[in-house]
Amino acid sequence: MADATVATATNAATIRPEEVAHFAALARDWWDPKGSSAMLHRLNPVRLAFIRAAIDQHWASDPDHLKPLAGKRALDVGCGAGLLCEPLARLGAEVTGVDAAPANIEAAALHAQGAGLSIHYRHGELASLGLGQFDLVTCLEVIEHVADKPAFVAELSRHLAPPGVMVISTPNRTPQSRLLLVGAAEAIGAVPKGTHDWGDFVTPEELRDLLAAAGLTMSEPRGIAFSPLQGLHLSNDMSLNYIVTARAV
Fold it and tell me: The domain at 17-248 falls in which architecture?
């Protein structure tokens, strides 16, 4: 659901102004677990569990270690109001969050200050910010909102320092996601109207090709599924949403 701010090194913009406006309008209650971003609050623990496992596997860290990212730099692209940035900071990382909407960055910085966390927040085209490279790059529920997906993924790759790891999650383009994530979710208010364009969803095969073109190899995807008993959970079912890691080839 978050929006991203990215471009190629040649400044081919991937931002859609209408997306910026849509997510900026949600900034004021982004941190309200019962507000317009309630779905992200429910999704965040599932994504964090995957990220923590990916961190431990990639750097062979102790799963019981409270700060496995100590001494590492993390970049969250399309950070919204910081729902992922803050947990990454608590895991020990030096965190930078980038978003297209200034209102989101304002809300993120204010919340981090209240939480006593030092997080660097920036808005604008990623390619023009001069942020350098990072050990961990995350991009969750973002790629489906950008205009130029190859340029976007190439820019993500340029910000990943070898031998770092990237984590991407996105809705899958399937009949089920069209029915549930777009039709039903927006109809009942679980997701704000106009959040998703099903035609912009990316299949795992398409994402693998995009990452390969950017010099990255993708892991086997894990689904993020829903059931009445388990709620949102990691699964082999990728019909709605999925999450992957990527590394330099």
Answer: 3-Layer(aba) Sandwich (3.40)
